[in-house]
Amino acid sequence: MDVLNPVPAAAGSTIVTLAPRPRDLRGKRIGILDNSKPNADTLMARIAELLVERAGAAGVHTWRKPGASKPAADHDAVAAGADVFLTGSAD
Amino acid sequence: MLLGTEPFRSLATTAAAAAGMPHVAMVLVDHPLGGVDPKRIRDRGEGALDAVLKALTTDPAMPSPAIVAAAERVSVPDDLDAFQEHAMARGWSDGLPVLPPTAARVARLVAGARLPGDTVVVASLAPAMRPLTVELVAINAALAGAAPEHMPVVLAALRACADPAFNLNAIQTTTHPCTPLLIVNGPIARTLGISGGANALGNGYRANAVIGRAVRLSLQNVGGAIAGETDRATLGHSGKFTYCLAENEAESPWEPLSVERGFGANDSCVTVLGAAAPHNVNDHGSMSAASLLKALAGTLSAPASNNIYYGGEALVIVGPEHARTIADSGWSKNDLKRALWEHGGVRMGSFSDENIARYKHIIPGRFDATDPMATVTPTVAWEDVMIMVAGGPGKHSVVIPTFGATRAATAQVQL
Predict the structure, then answer these.
(1) Are the beta carbons of A4 and B405 separated by less than 8 Å?
(2) Can you give the pLDDT at residue B205?
(3) What is the overall mean pLDDT for chain B?
(4) Alpha carbon distance B98, B220 (integer Å)
């Protein structure tokens, strides 16, 4: 018999163009958008610290979401505050 | 770029695709991160450094765009047992047997909705952010065993789930055991036989079973909340199969929940709540509201409830006999809410130091007391205690905590 598929064929979202990545991180500002999950801050702070030490990044600025299940307050202001970003997804 | 852990890969992938960024770079480290000594976390950061550096300095390849198609016809085995195997293998089921969503059955369910099949019910259903049409709801209702007359309630429930305050994306994907609890008010409950009486949260009622299940299968198959993949519930609870009841308006001494939420007594409504499993309150002895309050407030006050540190509403479903005892003491619904909030609460000494530090960040000012005997109220505000009446004869009520970062939402059933 024929049935109708309960799962739609494809996602509805259109694909966005991502910002071009820099060739290297010398002099670039590292942004951290902490998703507020336990130890996400520790993990990303350590990586960012090493990016400054070993890849010549200019510095680190951290923004924190008000809770893991809540969106960041102002994406545009956050995006303007650094050249590349680390963020956590889920746990 | 995204950082995460391996068990959460599916969820991160889905979230990125839903945001139109399936090609964003992702680096995964060992799980878990929570509850681990920060020194070990720093080592994991060092281990991930090369991958992070590469991700930040390499342009991701642009993927080909997805194509949205109308409901696809699929050929499946005629034999019902073979069909079950097929449906399970394709991930269409919740684990229980499903009925074949043939075009004829789906057409009858669409007719029950009294809306064209291509009507968009929810523009983008989380977490996959796919559009939910009446036809897709009907296909999933057909799997669930729902009848055409159930469709308006299923649609109202799904519209309520899409209210931004409900935070469906988080409800669908969290490790917390929550799922939409459907509370039906108004004449439709009687018309369809949606039980608010004996065993209303249990088995035995077709309408409760299939309406809740049609919502669950829509959330799974269209929303894309796949158990163990994008639905990250650590344990979940059995209400995720179906979690639907009516308020027992006939035996309630107070106004119905929907009326309290601004609708008319003759409006049929569905209120959704991002709800954990019910916890029973057995009190066969108390003879007044003040006496009964002790068991109810005590059960409402759990140190590890999300309502403690995340906020949101907590629901108390008062059994009709308990409700009568409370009302006979002259208490209104608001009197009961205030009393539960004032007499309930968790002592500061019940929380670990690590959790207090975390909770202080989430709700500033709420966990500042230094006295271990000081209490934190069971919800942030007394109005966040939700009350409804349901159940049959007996001296039981239940407390249902919620996910916390969610608000109940109500939609009127369109008939």
Answers:
(1) no
(2) 98
(3) 95
(4) 14
Handedness of CA B49, B50, B56, B61 (dihedral sign): negative
**Measured distance CA(A23)–CA(B233) in Å, rounded:** 40
What is the average pLDDT across B279-306? 97
Residues from chain B contacting residue A90 (CB–CB below 8 Å)? 4-5, 8, 11-12, 15, 173, 232
When CB atoms are compared, the residue of A12, A23, A87 closest to B57 is A23
Q: What is the mean pLDDT of residues B26-51?
A: 91
CB contact under 8 A, A44 and B8: no
A61-65, B102-106, B293-297, B308-312: the lowest-pLDDT one: A61-65
Q: Which of A35, A55, A48 is nearest to B46 (CA)?
A: A48
Find which of A1, A2, A3 to mutate to test the B interface (most B CBs within 10 Å of its CB). A3
Model confidence at B118, pLDDT cuts 50, 70, 90, reads very high
Query: What is the pTM for the complete model shown?
Result: 0.90
The answer to whether the CB atoms of B130 and A8 lie below 8 A apart is yes
Q: What span, in angstroms and rounded, lies between the C-alpha atoms of B160 and B218?
A: 13
Structure confidence at residue B351 (pLDDT)? 97
3-class DSSP state of B170 = helix
ipTM, interface predicted TM-score of the complex: 0.88
Q: Flag if A37 and B167 touch (Cβ within 8 Å).
A: no
Q: Where along chain A do its domains lie?
A: 29-87
Q: Phi/psi class of residue A44: alpha, beta or left (left: φ > 0; alpha: ψ in -120 to 50)?
A: alpha
Q: What is the number of H-type helices and E-type strands within chain A?
A: 2, 4
Those residues with Cβ within 8 angstroms of residue B252's Cβ, 6 or more apart along the chain or in another chain: B320, B323, B388, B389
Contact call for B1 and A87, based on CB within 8 A: yes
